[in-house]
Structures are given as C-alpha cells and as structure tokens.
From TrEMBL:
Residues 1-21 are annotated as: Disordered. It comes from the Bacteria. InterPro entries: His_Pase_superF_clade-1, His_PPase_superfam, PGM_Phosphatase. GO terms for cellular component: cytoplasm. Pfam families: His_Phos_1 (PF00300). One of its GO terms (molecular function) is phosphatase activity. This is Phosphoglycerate mutase.
Length: 232
C-alpha cells in the first residue's frame, strides 16, 4: 500500500462504503500522517528527556537513511507539514523532505509536543521510582494519571493533543497533514481517535520513525495504521 493520494483512483481500485479495499487512500479525506521523530543521541536516552530539546543520534541519521527514503515515498505529495517545536522533530521532518519528498514549508505546532515532565525532566531513569506517587504504567515511565510537579500527566497530554487535532482538522478539512511529533503525543492522538483512556493508549508501541495514520470523518475517527515502520 503506497499511501500516495491523487486526483482520482482507477475504476475497480476505489474504496467503497466504509471500507478501505484499494491500494491507495482516497483523496479528499481529513487525514493525519503522524511520524515519531528519529532516535535521540545515547546520553539523552539515559534520562527522562520528555519535552527537553535533545539532539538526534548522528549515527542513526546515516544508518536509517533507507527509512527516510521510504517515508518520503509513502507520504502524499500535497500534504501540509507540521512539527513539534523540538529540534529532534523538526530535523526529522527536514530529513524526510531531503530524502526525496521535496522541500515544503513546515509549521511549528506546540500542541503536538511531548509530555512535559516538570521537575522530573532530566532525571536518570533509575532515580524516578522513588518520586512516583502511583505505580508506573508497564509501558511508560509513569502512571497515565501521575502529574509530575510542574508538569503534565498523560491524561493532560491526551486532552491537549486531542484539541490540537480537532483544531487542525477543522482548519484543513479534506486535506492530508504530516505531523512529526513524539511517542507520547502520538499515543495521545490514538487515545483521542479511539476515545479510550490514556492508560489504554499507552499499550500502543510507537517506535522511532514509525508512521501512524488517522482520519476524521465528520465527528468520527478511523485508525488506518499505527506504528508502521517504513521500508521494514
């Protein structure tokens, strides 16, 4: 499935009813292509970096060039581009564009920022357990409802990201939008689309450079794909 959109689909290759049967996604649908940023550098991975601005891993930028090229081929050419304010997201977006997509304007969107961890941001992972007031989620550093001092809970992130998606969908109805964001924010987007609690959404795996595609049809959302790894 290429994911490329166009003016029309050939006869016999069209999606019908409420099903997705054709190898291409039909144009004219309000659609989000969410990409998690690339791998950050090794020292940052030892910390709870949350919404800190940490650099990407330079070795991975080279080694994963085929994944950037696959993303460039996968994305629709007429999409609007958005990035989190953090450099790791913006650099990922720019690298996908230079890998064959072509240069496009990228709008900075604070609403798709990663979870703000407040006073816990920058802590080594091993120092976190003694500060928690609730058991951590099996697949996240904190419980979905734990709010770090001066920071956000994942429930807060889901509300923020959900409001951002609705705003962008209203503004750009029937358009494709590429959003380069973060693992927590993309889980929050899935929480919003599926109308499930943040705790449930944290069970999704969202890997670096993975693609998640969401559509909004009036007030109803559809998940087309989640955690799709390009070229794998």
């Amino acid at each position: 499935m290429t994911g490329q959109t166009g003016a029309s689909l050939p006869e016999g290759q069209k999606n019908h009813g409420h099903f997705l049967d054709a190898p291409k996604l039909e144009p004219g649908v309000t659609r989000f292509w969410l990409i998690r940023h690339a791998l950050v550098e090794q020292n940052a991975r030892a910390l709870l970096y949350g919404a800190m601005d940490v650099p990407l891993c330079p070795d991975s930028l080279v080694a994963q060039q085929p994944m950037y090229e696959a993303l460039a081929r996968r994305l629709p050419q007429d999409a609007l581009w958005y990035s989190s304010p953090l450099s790791r997201a913006l650099q990922t977006a720019e690298t996908v564009q230079t890998a064959g997509y072509g240069e496009r304007a990228i709008t900075i969107e604070p609403g798709i920022l990663e979870q703000e961890l407040g006073e816990w941001q920058g802590l080594p992972h091993q120092d976190l357990p003694e500060r928690l007031t609730l058991p951590a989620h099996r697949f996240w550093s904190t419980s979905a409802v734990e709010r770090p001092p001066g920071g956000e809970s994942m429930v807060d992130v889901c509300a923020r990201v959900g409001a951002t998606l609705d705003r962008l969908a209203d503004r750009n109805a029937r358009r494709d939008m590429v959003l380069v964001s973060h693992g927590g924010a993309i889980r929050a987007a899935l929480s919003h689309a599926l109308r499930v609690h943040a705790d449930t959404a944290l069970h999704f795996s969202i890997q670096n450079l993975s693609l998640t595609i969401l559509e909004r049809h009036d007030a109803t959302w559809r998940v087309v794909t989640a955690n799709e790894l390009p070229g794998i």
